[in-house]
Automatic annotation (TrEMBL):
This is Ribonuclease 3. Digests double-stranded RNA. Involved in the processing of primary rRNA transcript to yield the immediate precursors to the large and small rRNAs (23S and 16S). Processes some mRNAs, and tRNAs when they are encoded in the rRNA operon. Processes pre-crRNA and tracrRNA of type II CRISPR loci if present in the organism. Keywords: Cytoplasm, Endonuclease, Hydrolase, Magnesium, Metal-binding, mRNA processing, Nuclease, RNA-binding, rRNA processing, rRNA-binding, tRNA processing. It comes from Streptococcus merionis. Its cofactor is Mg(2+).
Amino acid sequence: MKTLTDLNKKLQVEFGIGFDDLSLLETAFTHTSYANEHRLLKISHNERLEFLGDAVLQLIISQYLYQKYPDKPEGDMSKLRSTFVREESLAGFSRACGFAPYLKLGKGEEKSGGRDRDTILGDAFEAFLGALLLDKGIESVEAFLYKVMIPHLEQGTFAKVEDYKTKLQEILQVNGEIDIDYVVVDETGPAHDKVFQVEVRVNGRVVGHGQGRSKKIAEQQAAQHAVEQGN
């Protein structure tokens, strides 16, 4: 696991952010499982910061949508916002920022693959925003999101996420039930940074391949490959 000092240097180099209160940064990356395993040390975990980060994220994204789409009704903007800030998206941003190696997890959570779990990574991203808000103010949070998140929203990367597993199932099962299996054929890399290779098989026949830092992502890529190949 990389150190807090390494993380602060990374933030300074890549995002121009230097925390004054490193305890906030440490808390943001401390999962409840780690705090529970070290109860005697009374270590703080990131749930309260996650609550704060979620609120400031909702505010900034809401303001962005309000200004970007002056003619959209409230219901449409709410749907867009929920798409942008869903767990899977936030976990993706957390991975893109390289946050996973800095998480402090309990031994059990570490062994079960928690370092690549969408829930944990998404929560850590929100907790980081909460810590940044307390340390630097809302302007810094906004600047960070406009550098890391908003460009993807501008490109529509997260506006329409295709569920290729469902799409493949709909295509293949149009004439009746068939067996669709997703099989992990290889795993590479250290425990905290694994890459999974997955095959999707239809009635035992391989129709698509995918890879990703989680089984879920690799399965979606395999399904996408199968759909695009017309298998």
